[in-house]
Design goal:
The chain is an alpha/beta fold. 41% of the residues lie in helices and 14% in strands. Strands 2-1-3-4-5-6 form a six-stranded mixed sheet, covered by helices on one side. The chain binds zinc ion.
Length: 242
């Protein structure tokens, strides 16, 4: 773990506070009616995004979303564990999904993975690492079965290609796990909810969407809506062409 000067952290904090001042004076004051409505009527976002905690893949920034547009859950690697009946153990991601679906009644869920994901790299290297992390190993193990498949990929696939495959396959797994929540499955069957799997390549600035039938990812054409990914993940185990 690199050692950083404390002063650089202080500078970063000052920059945030200057940013807030600018936000307040320009955006907040300039959108006072929007904020008044969001206070008086409450939030009613139509879209739930499950994204990675990574500092470089901010869903609101990527989509130019406005306040009130997105209900966002962020965790390491944008993973969704399969549904389990409540046992008294707090489950933050499941609780936030439940709030988005059963309280806010969103119409769409987007699982947003990204390239160069540290959480996915940790998962890929987990057998070789002895970092002493307490919580990360169990968390990334949500997608643990995918690593065995990745390691059996064609030998010509280089490390970057294998990691992109694992990142996208983890998105597909999370989309599949979302369907194990009974109140999500009910809404999909009723045509009231659609699931989407997206992957943001932060090296090339490209957004790809998962095809629900093949499991493959392809670029989202400008001005077009990608088909939802819910309902089928048969192609999940295929090597995703870059
Ligand atoms: Zn990540």
């Amino acid at each position: 773990m690199p050692v950083r000067e404390h002063s650089s952290g202080t500078l970063a904090l000052r920059r945030l506070l200057r940013g807030f001042e600018h936000f307040h004076d320009c955006f907040f004051e300039g959108n006072s009616q929007l904020y008044e409505r969001l206070v008086s009527e409450g939030q009613s976002p139509r879209i739930l995004v499950i994204a990675c905690s990574d500092s470089r893949s901010d869903p609101a920034l990527l989509t130019e979303a406005q306040p009130g547009d997105l209900f966002v859950i962020r965790n390491v690697a944008a993973l969704v564990p399969a549904y389990e009946r409540p046992t008294g153990v707090p489950k933050g991601t499941s609780a936030a999904i439940e709030f988005g679906i059963r309280a806010l009644e969103v119409d769409h869920i987007i699982v947003l993975g990204h390239s160069h994901c540290g959480g996915i790299r940790f998962l890929a290297e987990r057998r070789a690492r002895k970092d002493g992390f307490e919580f990360l190993p169990d968390w990334v193990a949500v997608a643990g079965d995918l690593v065995d498949t990745m390691e059996n990929l064609a030998s010509e696939a280089d490390e970057a290609e294998r990691l992109r495959w694992l990142e996208k396959s983890a998105v597909g797994l999370s989309v599949r796990n979302l369907q194990s929540f009974p109140w999500i499955a009910d809404r999909i069957r009723a045509g009231r909810l659609a699931l989407h799997g997206w992957h943001f390549d932060l090296q090339h600035g490209q957004l790809q969407a998962m095809d629900g039938t093949s499991g493959r990812f392809s670029a989202v054409p400008a001005g077009e809506l990608p088909a939802p990914a819910c309902g089928c993940c048969e192609g999940l185990m295929e090597l995703v062409a870059q």
